[in-house]
Specification:
Blueprint: H1 3-9, E1 12-18, H2 25-35, H3 44-49, H4 56-67, H5 73-89, E2 92-99, H6 101-105, H7 111-129, E3 132-140, H8 145-155, E4 164-168, H9 180-188, E5 192-197, H10 203-213, E6 217-220, H11 228-237, E7 240-243, H12 245-250, H13 262-267, E8 271-274, H14 279-282, H15 286-297, H16 301-314, H17 319-331
Parallel strand pairs: 1-2, 2-3, 3-4, 4-5, 5-6, 6-7, 7-8
Helix pairs in contact: 1-15, 5-7, 8-9, 16-17
The protein binds adenine and zinc ion.
């Protein structure tokens, strides 16, 4: 079995995927056309050509511009179905999707329009491909804590459909400590908690996410490598890191994939997973992330299996429901 087939055969969970970041330019234009929305680019090719980023902010500016094409419930449904179809082809058995309601409510789209479309797709993906999924509401950290609290208020009637909360957008200058009260409230509500930390921000933001927000996983976390005590803690406590290698190269966190520290994190005993982040913008869905990283860093099939196992263990799915996935994983010869 070649590497690509092996990676696709691994039952895996995707734990770091912004659904708005799976909006391919073709669909962006289709939706913009059917909704009468003007885009800053005049063709699919010009849009792809604009995807040359120098850092996180240069990406976010385009990502928010592209999201303006999403208006109707069926747009969110179509977006998520296109993602699930690709995820299924990549061997994803379970996906925890981030969505950014503030990006849409700020444009006058109802919170329910976003949630209804995504949730309908989750049900359809389960029926069509047997993929299980969860929705994680992400707060935009460049906005105020008050704005986040107002968004949580809108989410309250729908908490049966929202599994957890996260923190994303511009990291530098917006530490987890800015959202102390918001996440305390989310914990009281029994929501699962994650946060982006240590993507561009310093290791201290990872410590804050753990100690002040009470996160169960760290999204990215690659800058933990700069702090030996934090590395030892992450290994000891087996806090999962949802690492996104192709994203990190596109956003210049690492200049080349060969320089990525994923293997260093893995060798230090951290619970590393591989994910795609914003695949439409970064040039690869989850299987591509596994394959390219394995080639660049010389990961063995045993290590790839470990990473897939980590993703299943770190998911927010009850233990009993994961059992069939572990059995399939164990049965896969290396
Ligand atoms: N990689 C990333 N970091 C922070 N916020 C994001 N929103 C979408 N992708 C993101
Ligand atoms: Zn992300």
């Amino acid at each position: 079995m070649d590497l690509d087939a092996f990676v696709r055969a691994l039952p895996k969970a995707e734990l770091h995927l912004h659904i708005e970041g799976s909006l391919e330019p073709e669909m962006m234009f289709e939706l913009a056309c059917r909704n009468g929305v003007a885009l800053p680019w005049d063709s699919v090719e010009a849009t792809r050509a604009a995807y040359a980023f120098s850092d996180l902010q240069s990406f976010l500016d385009l990502y928010y511009a592209g999201a303006a094409a999403l208006i109707q419930e069926r747009d969110f449904f179509d977006l998520a179905m296109a993602y699930f179809e690709r995820a299924h082809a990549d061997g994803v058995v379970h996906a925890e999707l981030f969505f950014d309601p503030q990006t849409h409510t700020a444009r006058g789209i109802a919170f329910e329009t976003v949630l209804d479309g995504l949730e309908r797709a989750c049900g359809e993906a389960q029926a069509r491909w047997g993929i299980s999924s969860r929705l994680i509401l992400c707060f935009l950290r460049h906005l105020s804590e008050e704005d986040g609290l107002a968004t949580l208020q809108q989410a309250l009637p729908h908490l049966a459909r929202i599994h957890g909360v996260g923190l994303d957008s511009s990291e530098k200058g917006h530490p987890p400590s800015k959202f102390l009260r918001l996440f305390a409230r989310c914990r009281e509500l029994g929501l699962h908690i994650v946060a982006h930390a240590g993507e561009e921000g310093p290791p201290a933001y990872i410590v804050e996410a753990l100690d002040l927000l009470g996160v169960e996983r760290i999204d990215h976390g690659v800058r933990a490598a700069e702090d030996a005590a934090l590395m030892a803690r992450l290994a000891r406590e087996q806090v999962a890191l949802t690492v996104c290698p192709l994203s990190n190269v596109k956003l210049c966190v690492f200049q080349r994939l060969e320089q990525h520290n994923l293997k260093q994190l893995l060798d230090a005993g951290l619970k590393v997973t591989i994910n795609s982040d914003d695949p439409a913008y970064f040039g690869g869905y989850i299987a591509q992330n596994y394959v390219d990283t394995a080639r660049a860093l010389g990961l063995s099939r045993v290590e790839l299996k470990r990473i897939a196992r980590n993703s299943l263990e770190a998911s927010f799915v009850p233990e009993a429901l994961r059992q069939p996935w572990f059995e399939r994983l164990d049965a896969l010869p290396v």
